[in-house]
From TrEMBL:
Keywords: Membrane, Transmembrane, Transmembrane helix, Transport. This is Major facilitator superfamily (MFS) profile domain-containing protein. Gene3D superfamilies: MFS general substrate transporter like domains (1.20.1250.20). InterPro entries: MFS, MFS_dom, MFS_trans_sf. It comes from Cladophialophora psammophila CBS 110553.
Amino acid sequence: MSEKQHSDHVEAGWSPVETDRQASGNVPAGHVPVTNEEKALNRALNRRFDIALLPFLSLLYLFNGLDRGNVGNAETQGFTKDIGAHPDDLNLAVSLFFITFVLFQPPSAAIGRYLGAKNWVPVIMVCWGILTICQAFIKGRGTLIGTRLLIGLFEAGFYPCCVFYLSTFYTRFDLAVRIGLFYGQYAIAGAFSGSIAYGIFHIKTGSLKNWQYLFIIEGGATCLIAIIAWFWLPLGPGSAWFLREKDRAYAVERIRLDNAMYAQHTYGDSGIENERLTRRDVIETAKDWKLWYVLFFNILASVPGQAFSVFLPLVVAGLGYSSIEANLMSVPPYICGAVGLYIFAVSSDRMKERGYHIFVGLLITLVGLIITVTVQGHGSKYAGLCILLFGSYVSAPLTVAWLSGNTPEPGKRALVLGVNGFGNLSGVIGSQLFRASYAPKYLIPFYVTLAFIAVALVGYLAYRFTLAAVNRRRQAKLAAMSPEEIEDEKTNPRRYADRKYTFVYGL
């Protein structure tokens, strides 16, 4: 079918793939395969994406995590001392990294929406990969800070672009487990970072310091995988090279139907909307109360995950391990984080529920923090760290899946996911908390983090109850409306996408 024919196709009318027209309970209406044939086709399509697309994107995120957190590994080998800086300069540089990383997420996500993740993600990866290599040869406090600022700028758009990209391939309640697997690479990156660093730090030959080899090897690998990504990634489900023509058509149609009740668009050959981003998308994102409501608690809940992505090797070293052993011993807690995230993500999608899953994840994090700060033995503290990380990676990806599923308009969704990146301000907080002056026990940082998690615990619970209250008010309004008024509410652009009374927020 030609581009012109596709662009005449509007998101309305009958399709062989069923859409649940009545949201049940507190679950948004969307794409629901009805017949056994449709269910089998849906599972087969997800399987193909799970094999050809998700692992590769997860690999890219692995390198994103490696390049973001390798300064913590390098510091165990005297990185700041060798470049003529102070250990506290590393905390400052990591904090400033998150400033550019956060500020440039919305604009970078918008560029990714226009150009497509296929084009934008490889560009920014090559840029930060080159800067990671350059980090091996910097001298002084100023160049350390400058390099981290630039790496933050180019890494900013990666996560929101990739999450939005996934949302164009998977329907809303197939998405959380995929985001979980994808985001889990951030935890796996910590594990790999420790094990890779452990191996590289045994290099004793050559004229370079062992931490310099770490930056060169990881930065070079990032550039290489970015080039491969440009050839591997399809622009959208309609141009997926690993699907048959029939499967590509179904992949486009099910995503169209997942949002068909709340968003009207025309589509190109790739299965991507022709209307990529509008002024109303920007305005509605700025007015989106549910985004700003949850953002504050997302920042607090993300402090442990963000802080330990850089400083866990230093915290583990404080338990009495040597500098090289600390990198290796940081691996099991990260593995625990990845396992916990996967379990919660699978359960969340199957139960079509987000809020209570996040609550339980934060509760586990709180228990881990309490154990870490109260017990005396190093083995018990280490076990506390494993429990802490088991729960600490749950909230961020499930919040993303929650916001994505509750934002059916694709243009607005891209911006919402970009603004949600402000949650990475937790990295600024974490980098200032875990300062060298608090080593080796880091008791004050742990106490402050414990307070943050306790507040986030209450906040997420209140957020869920607030959405439930909005759903009840909307159901009461619909009960008083005639069928004609309800149909008009679905199609009239007066209220935008999720602001329609017919939209039910997922809880």
